[in-house]
Amino acid sequence: MEGDGRLAAPVSGPLATSVCWLLGDAARELTQELERVLRKDDLRWRDYGVLVVLEAAGPLSQQEIGRRLSVDRSTMVHVIDVLEERGLVARARDAADRRAYSIRLTDSGRALLVDVLHPATEAVQERVLGGLAAEDRMHLNRVLAQLAAGR
Amino acid sequence: MEGDGRLAAPVSGPLATSVCWLLGDAARELTQELERVLRKDDLRWRDYGVLVVLEAAGPLSQQEIGRRLSVDRSTMVHVIDVLEERGLVARARDAADRRAYSIRLTDSGRALLVDVLHPATEAVQERVLGGLAAEDRMHLNRVLAQLAAGR
DNA sequence: CCATATCGTCAGTGTTGCTGACGATCGGAA
DNA sequence: TTCCGATCGTCAGCAACACTGACGATATGG
After folding, report:
1. Contact B27 A26 (CB under 8 A)
2. Whose C1' is closest to the CA of A4: which nucleotide?
3. Potential cystine with B8: which of A42, A58, A59, A70 (Cβ 3.0-4.6 Å)?
């Protein structure tokens, strides 16, 4: 990922009209802000992703989590290690497939998500997108969702 | 950056409604595709950025380029080294500030941009955003531009 | 003329994610 | 059942990467 702390100056000229750069910039800013907030709880974007996925989908194998976040399975090992050490998730052998773990959110993990993480990221989102009209935000959401669906 | 080749499965549930994840996913996909295309010319997203910035703004110092792309000045040294070796940009001492270089696009660099890179990235953008109605694309562009401006 | 700051450079460093192998386990075919 | 290929999690090694902190050269303000 990028260095934080540093601000990206908006690019002028023809670039400003390219969806490509605009999208990249917006995503980078949002991600940077998010990382900054999450760092207070010693978490990364990636860790937050794991918790969110588990909250949404219930217990999953390490590999399945990685698949949904574009994280390599070998990388997931350590990510889960850390999360488990902190008591946010728990490993249990999957009864149906004993090669795999069944990773689940602990109460502690769910509490962190609900009480701290979700509010914090909500705030960031609010701040970054705050300048948009409600109508535009809904539209943005709809268009992006359509983009994600059409893959 | 992320590993390429790997596909990100769309996340289901509450996440799908969060602009945050949607934006991140869209940007990641676009970036990955772009990197894949640029690799044919042995270039990275970052290199392309340098060329585009120079095309848009004219000669700049290394540090100024880095500032606009969120790239550290020490990293820029090597980026420019490679681009210069390939004859795409040229270093000249800035007459007004002899500490700094004045990096400019060569004819060769401009030609590559116009003949190869721009068409290629256009195509990617077309493919990724192709599923959207023209009206939605314009709206997306407008909203993102507004977002970039309001910083 | 001196102090401080900036530009580009470079060696060293720490982090990061991937590659490729491993044992264990699963699933299907013979 | 037995066998074979594929998959799960793990780990050591590796390669890429960007950042840190220092340096000489230069600029700028007192």
Report:
1. yes
2. D19
3. A70
Can you say whether the dihedral through the CA atoms of A39, A44, A47, A48 is positive or negative?
positive
Residue A3, CA distances (Å) to A15, A92, A108, B75, B136 in order:
22, 36, 31, 11, 33
Side-chain half-sphere of B103: how many Cα atoms within 13 Å? 27
B138 CB-near residues (< 8 Å, 6+ apart): none
Q: Which nucleotide is nearest to B80 (CA to C1')?
A: C8
Residue B6, helix vs strand vs coil: coil
What is the predicted pLDDT for the residue at A128? 84
Q: Give the domain ranges of chain A.
A: 13-149
Within 24-43 of B, beta carbons closer than 8 Å to A belong to 24-31, 34
pLDDT, tens digit (0-9, with 9 covering 90-100), for B43-67: 998 999 999 999 999 999 999 999 9
User: In Å, what is the separation between the CA of B141 and the C1' of D2?
Assistant: 62
Q: How confident is the model at residue B113 (pLDDT cuts 50, 70, 90)?
A: very high
A106 CB neighbours strand D below 7 A: no
Q: What pLDDT digit, counting tens, does each position of A129-147 carry?
A: 888 888 988 889 889 888 8
- Report domain A13-149's class: mainly alpha
Pairwise CB contact (< 8 Å): A68 & B9: yes
Q: How far is A99 from chain B (nearest CA, A)?
A: 22
CA atoms of A23 and A117, how far apart (whole Å): 24
Query: How far is the C-alpha of A84 from the C-alpha of A65, rounded, in Å?
Result: 14
Distance in Å from C15's C1' to A36's CA comes to 18
A138 in contact with B, Cβ within 8 Å: no
* DSSP track, A43-72: --HHHHHHHHHHHHH-SB-HHHHHHHHT--
pLDDT per position as a tens digit, B6-30: 334 444 444 445 788 888 888 888 8
